[in-house]
Structure formats: structure tokens, C-alpha cells
């Protein structure tokens, strides 16, 4: 029985490798050479590995955010917009408190709190539209993504524009609000993501509220008959999901760029969706999936320089192939169970 379950997954991963190799050969490159570039760029040195961990932080947060929503039966496509709202709240807090006499810990904690609150409000709005107005969360979150990114662009170009250059960025946060050095950023950021992810996934599995979330996601009608307020539970799940995604904005402002840059996210919210679907609420699998996609993202950045015909877009192609292959294998497994 276990062999029958693992076989479709093995075939799915094998098909991803084969199709990727065929694509690489079709454009005139050697698959092993491309694989070596990806490996060396992601793990070839301490600095490269620190960048891999650095990229893993926002991916783990968005993966956890989407996973929480999935537990409630909600498909949160809006992590991208929620992280932008979180970054807006974080940079706003940093701007208005830049001259306050406060400790670095308080400044950083305030930024994290505001980023979480902003993302939570944006996620709650999508949940409200889903529960109270019967607007499908996929449609609502996609539309809210565009609104959030457009508003972030307006803030960057107008009220918080950096007057010192013409780049599409806001002013920099103060020195005492920053977490310096790449290894410290990777360490603290990843530690934050691990703590948040581990606690959230444990809470969903072990707490009474988590049981309500899972019951709502498994069978909303049965959950209502059992006395669970499914609408309130769904809205709270979307709010907390959005808050977790909002912490990516805090990571960007306080641990990375020290300012808000237009289009700073390379699609963390959508990568989080891939991670959540790969992990299926399992924390160890979440770590493995995050590290794999972070290494793929970091490694792909060097493809433009190290190869003639392959670009960093190969990372997106591989992610798409993984999702399609696993979706097909899951469908096949479901057919076997119902047969």
C-alpha cells in the first residue's frame, strides 16, 4: 500500500527532472552544467549559502501563511498583496519613529507588529468578502494583490519618496532600526520564520482553535452542525494568514533593503503557494520544500552569467512543472482510493 502511494510521487519528480533536462538540451545547454551552476550558486560557499537562507525566510513565511488558509479550506492567492501591505505598515512605523529615543529592540518589535497587523487586515478583508459577500477568495485575493501593489507604488513615488536619487524607493530607515550583516539577517530572519512556522503548524494540529479550522476546511456543513462558527473561523484564519505574510514586509524593511523598493518581491507569495502544496501542513516537509525552492531561486540568479542561453526564468519553469506533476500524481492517488 505504501509503495502504491509513493510510486506516483516518485514518477512525478522523475518527470520534472526529465522534462527540465529536455528543455535545457532543447535550447542548447548541458543539463549537468546547468545543475552544477545551480548547486554552486546556492551552496558553493558560505556567502552563497547565507543568501539561500536569506531567501528561504520570506518563502517559509508565505508558505506557512498559505498553508494555514488551506487548512480552513481557503485558497489564499493574496500573500503577495498582504506582504506588500505589511511592508507599507513597517516602513510607515519606521518613518514616524525615526527620531524617537527608543531601544533597537522596541523599534524592531514595533515594525514587526505593524507589519503583521497590516497583512492581517488585508487578509481579513478577503475573508470577509468570502464569508459575508460570497466572493470567492481566489478572485478577491487576486484583485487585492493589484490594489496593494499599486498603493505601494504610489507611496514609493509620493509621500515617502527618497529625495536623494531617482530610484523607485522610499527613504531609508534609521541606523538604530536596522539589523546589519548578512549572516545576522539570515540567522535572525530564518529563526523568526522557523518559530512562526513551527508554532502555527503545531497550533493548527493540536489546539481547539486549530481543530475548528481543520473541521471548517474538511466539511463546512458538518462543522456548522457541530456548533462551529465557520464564518468567523474562516475570517480569522485568513486574517492570521495575512499577518504571517505581512511579516515578509518586516523582513524586507528591517533585515534586507532598509527601505521599500518598488517590486521588491520576486513572487514570494506565489512561491509560498507552491511550498504549501508541497508540504501539505507537515513542518519537516515545509522546511525541505522551502530550502529546495530557495536554493533554486538563488541558483537561478547566476544562470544569466554562467550560461549563454538559460536565464533565471528557468526557476519559475521548474516550479510550474513541480506543481503540475504533483497535481497529476495527487489526482491519480485519489482515483485509486475511490476505485
Please provide a written account of the structure:
Helices cover 76% and strands 0% of the residues. It is built from 14 helices and no strands. The relative contact order is 0.20.
- β content, as a range? under 5%
Spatial gap, N to C terminus: 14 Å
Following the backbone from N to C, one meets helices and strands in this order, namely HHHHHHHHHHHHHH
Structural category is mainly alpha
Sheet of most strands: none
Q: Give the helix level as a range of percent.
A: over 70%
The total of beta strands comes to: 0
Provide mean pLDDT, rounded: 88
Task: State the helix count.
Answer: 14
Shape: globular
Low-confidence stretches: none
Rg estimate, integer Å: 21 Å
Summarize this structure as a short list of keywords or feature phrases:
globular, 14 helices, 339 residues, mainly alpha, 0% strand
Please sum up the structure shown.
The protein has 339 residues and is mainly α. It has helices spanning 2-26, 31-43, 46-71, 79-96, 104-132, 137-157, 182-206, 208-218, 220-225, 230-255, 268-279, 283-300, 303-306, 314-338. The chain contains 14 helices and no strands.
Amino acid at each position: 500500500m505504501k509503495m502504491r502511494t509513493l510510486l506516483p510521487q516518485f514518477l512525478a519528480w522523475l518527470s520534472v527532472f526529465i522534462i527540465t533536462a529536455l528543455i535545457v538540451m532543447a535550447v542548447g545547454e548541458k543539463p549537468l552544467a546547468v545543475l552544477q551552476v545551480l548547486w554552486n550558486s546556492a551552496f558553493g560557499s558560505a556567502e552563497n549559502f547565507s543568501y539561500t537562507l536569506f531567501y528561504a525566510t520570506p518563502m517559509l513565511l508565505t508558505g506557512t501563511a498559505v498553508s494555514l488558509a488551506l487548512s480552513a479550506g481557503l485558497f489564499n492567492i493574496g500573500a503577495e498583496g498582504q506582504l506588500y501591505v505589511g511592508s507599507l505598515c513597517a516602513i510607515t512605523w519606521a518613518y514616524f519613529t525615526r527620531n524617537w529615543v527608543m531601544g533597537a529592540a522596541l523599534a524592531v518589535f514595533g515594525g514587526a507588529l505593524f507589519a503583521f497587523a497590516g497583512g492581517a487586515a488585508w487578509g481579513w478583508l478577503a475573508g470577509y468578502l468570502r464569508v459575508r459577500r460570497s466572493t470567492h477568495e481566489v478572485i478577491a485575493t487576486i484583485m487585492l494583490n493589484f490594489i496593494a501593489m499599486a498603493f505601494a507604488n504610489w507611496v514609493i513615488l509620493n509621500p515617502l519618496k527618497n529625495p536623494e536619487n531617482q530610484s523607485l524607493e522610499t527613504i531609508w530607515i534609521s541606523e538604530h532600526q536596522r539589523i546589519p550583516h548578512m549572516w545576522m539577517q539570515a540567522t535572525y530572519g530564518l529563526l523568526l520564520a522557523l518559530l512562526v512556522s513551527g508554532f502555527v503548524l503545531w497550533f493548527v494540529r493540536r489546539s481547539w482553535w486549530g481543530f475548528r479550522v481543520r473541521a471548517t476546511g474538511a466539511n463546512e456543513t458538518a462543522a456548522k452542525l457541530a456548533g462551529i462558527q465557520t464564518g468567523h473561523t474562516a475570517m480569522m484564519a485568513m486574517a492570521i494568514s495575512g499577518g504571517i505574510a505581512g511579516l515578509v514586509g518586516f523582513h524586507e524593511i528591517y533585515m534586507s533593503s532598509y527601505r521599500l523598493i518598488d517590486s521588491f518581491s520576486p513572487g514570494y507569495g506565489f512561491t509560498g503557494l507552491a511550498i504549501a502544496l508541497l508540504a501539505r501542513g507537515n513542518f519537516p516537509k515545509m522546511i525541505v520544500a522551502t530550502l529546495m525552492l530557495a536554493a533554486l531561486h538563488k541558483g537561478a540568479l547566476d544562470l544569466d552569467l554562467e550560461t549563454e542561453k538559460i536565464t533565471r526564468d528557468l526557476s519559475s519553469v521548474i516550479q510550474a512543472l513541480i506543481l503540475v506533476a504533483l497535481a497529476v500524481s495527487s489526482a491519480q492517488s485519489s482515483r485509486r482510493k475511490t476505485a
